Structures are given as structure tokens and as C-alpha cells.
């Protein structure tokens, strides 16, 4: 097993996750099997209980793990499926060490950060890497070097460095070269962050430098000199047009050759899939504009997988999908504002929790249903479509979800198995579940099959008591898992498709998600 450890310096938000995923991709393009691990030094067991407004989207894996959005980047860039073990947090590490202590596994010993916590970290990494069967395991250490929380993880990396053979482990440090007021590239922050890294006993093999414009030769030499790496190991990671251009950029900078040399790897059979994708992206010559009506309208990171899934579908159709992020509360304050929706080629309502903005989303859904504008509803976006239809077509004026209000007509209600659950972490209906599709439905056409598997994250569902009443008025539940409604569509509409699951999580560049592809096609029409 070869390990590539990616650390970050200077500040957060430099795109360490994209860098780690891109490093994986350029090596995958050389024929290697890649897996990836994200270390998040926070105390939370997982991202499931965190606010997407602060931490970005909660990504859901096939096994139901609720994880950091970077795992989504790994899955998309590397076209792999990961599990909960690929996201290591301080919470998980301490929880298992404390459980072992209570069980008596360390009997007689004082349990300490070194060696017990660091051993637990290393064991987890090695176990996951081995189980994956990959040739190379990329490990991204979240946070910025110098943070108190990441210390035990960086110490574990230091120990791994001395335990593994020199050719089996490489360190890549991601930093920033800012411009001064005269527009000159400044290397001091990078020098300082490498100094900090060295004080922990770690020396980077390569430095990936984020910057606005390509790094000048002089700047590269300076970084190389002060940070003690060859000039060829200083990689200019200047702003790219799109995140999917980053691997190509790193390849051009020579990073895969450098890493293969360091890790004594000879390339296997090259794959050209990524180049083909780049070719398709370069030939895009049309643009459509869709609106996402959400709660965190000014924070794209909260809906990153939706953004990517729309992009994947767009690439397939040869068009750029421009997204306007609309705040649902605007429509609550001013219901006439929904008229602005007519300028969009399609409207998407994403998943969400809590009542804020839901009445605004319902107004938006009413507008698109009545004006035959393509609609894609995801999870809460399906539940609200059912509520809107029940209120305005079926005639149940106070129809609502029991998550959102006390009502006589809870057309969306708690899943029966959720009734006695009080604890919040990891307790929803999560991960891969199957749905059986109605023959001849839009759903079965999109998936080209009579069943599907998609990822879930919800506590509420369509209340089975109302199904006949709703279907009698023209909304159809064309995907089902036993008594659970997985898909709601309106056959009379130009394109009205909504799902209880989140198809965005399984979308990949080059393999767009079927509902997203059909939505973009309908929008193009
Ligand atoms: N809040 C809704 C539920 O729990 C929808 C969840 C979602 O959109 N992910 O069922």
C-alpha cells in the first residue's frame, strides 16, 4: 500500500479536498486503483448533526454514513463508492478508545494520546486502506497545520512516516501564495506553514500552491529553496475555470510523474476517460438557466452535490447549466415574486429540514405546476410537492407535514419506525434503498429499468392513508419500497418528477444521474 498524505497550511478553504481528489484522479488516469480517507479533527462523530450553513452539505454514502462533503468530491473524481470508515473524526477515535478502556483492553495502563489515540488512528487508516484493495490511499487531514485539534492526527502521520518504507509514503502540503498590494506573489505564508509542519516532524515532498495566476518561475524557486523541495515538486494550482480542470492542471505541472517517482511506481494501463470528459466540457456551446429554491440560497457549498449533478447532466447535453440560487423566504414575504420563475427553464427544490422557507417553496411549486415549467423535487422537494398538490388539487386546504405543523391532514408523516427514536445522530432512514418502478412511468423510462437503488436521508414520508385520494387527482407514486412512496410524478405535466431519495449523491462526471439528465433535457426543450 502506498500512502499520500495531504495537509493544509496558511488558511482553510483552499480547496484541499479538490487537491486530494485531483491527485487521486491523475494517478487513476495512470491505471492505479485509488481509495481515499478524510480526517476531520472535530469532536462530532460525523457530519450528520452539523449545520450545512456552517460546514457545507452533509454527504450520504451507500452504507448510510453522513459525512463531510469532501467524500462526495472523492466519489465523483475517482468514480468509487466509499463507506463510513473512510471518514475518521476525533469523535469516532475517542469513542472507540474509551470503549476499549471500559472493556479492559488496556488493563493496568494509563490511556494516553500517544500511543493509544495515535495507534487507533493508524490502525483505522491501515485497516480501511487494506480492505479497499487499492494501490494508493490518499489521506486528507482536515483543518490547518497548527490547529490544536489536528495535532494527534499529524503525530500519527509522523509515526506512519517512520514505520512505512520511504517509497511507500509521500506528503503533499497545500498552501497559498497571496498577492501584495503591488500584485506581487508572496511566499512568506507558505514558508511559515512549512516551518510549522516541520516543527511537528513532517517534511513535505511536494507543495501545491494555490494562487490567482500561475506561479512565476521565481516564486517557484523561492518556495523550493525555503521549503527544501525540488522546484519540480512546487505545483502551481492557480484558479481553474472548473474544479474538473484541476487534475489536468496538476498533470501538466508534472505532479503525477513526481509522485510516481517518489513512490517508485510504474504506470499501468492509462485511462482516457478524464480527457474525454475534458473534451466534452470544452465543446459546450449552449447555456440554460435553472433556479434552485432553497433555504441557504447564498451558500452553494450547502448544495454542492446538486450543483455537480446539474453540471454532469449539462456536460452530457452539451450545455452549461447556470444556477440561480433563490431564497424561498422571498416568496413568503412577497407572493407575487413567484412570477419571476417564468424566466427559468426549470425549477429545483432541494432537501431540507425545519419549517423555515417551506411555504415559499410551496408557492414556487404551485407556480411551476400551473405553468408547466420542468420541476425536479428532491426529498423535502417531493414532500412539499405532495403537500402543494393535496392543498390545491385534492382540496385538503390544511394539508401539511407533521414535521412542519400540527394539522388534521398530515399527508407527510413520520416514518413508523421513527416514532420512538429520540436521539439525533445517525438515526434517520439513511443510505442505499431499493425502489420498484411502475411500468410505463416516467421513472421507469428515466432509469431504463423496473427498479433502482438510490441514497436516502429522511425521517418523514408520504402518509399511506392519502395515497388513493392523491392518485385519483393525477399525481402518481411510480416508485415504491413496500408501503413507502419513493417517487411522485405528474404525468400530465411537461416534466414533474420528485423523489424521496437524493439522486444527486450518485451522479458522476461522465455518468449523470437519470433524473438530473431528464430534467436538463426537459429544460433545454
Ligand atoms: N425533513 C424531511 C424528512 O426528514 C426531508 C429530509 C430531506 O430533505 N433530506 O423527511
TrEMBL record:
Signal peptide extent: none
EC number: 6.3.4.2
Record-level GO BP terms: 'de novo' CTP biosynthetic process; pyrimidine nucleobase biosynthetic process
Residue numbers spanned by region Amidoligase domain: 1-265
Binding-site list for UTP: 12, 186-191, 222
Broad EC category: ligase
Pfam families xrefs: CTP_synth_N, GATase
UniProt catalytic activity: L-glutamine + H2O = L-glutamate + NH4(+); UTP + NH4(+) + ATP = CTP + ADP + phosphate + 2 H(+); UTP + L-glutamine + ATP + H2O = CTP + L-glutamate + ADP + phosphate + 2 H(+)
Domain CTP synthase N-terminal, chain residue ranges per copy: 2-265
Positions that bind L-glutamine: 53, 352, 380-383, 403, 459
GO molecular function, one term: identical protein binding
Residues at which Mg(2+) binds: 70, 140
One CC-aspect GO term: cytoophidium
Functional summary from the UniProt entry: Catalyzes the ATP-dependent amination of UTP to CTP with either L-glutamine or ammonia as the source of nitrogen. Regulates intracellular CTP levels through interactions with the four ribonucleotide triphosphates.
Subunit structure: Homotetramer.
Name of the featured protein: CTP synthase
Species this protein is from: Candidatus Methanoperedens nitratireducens
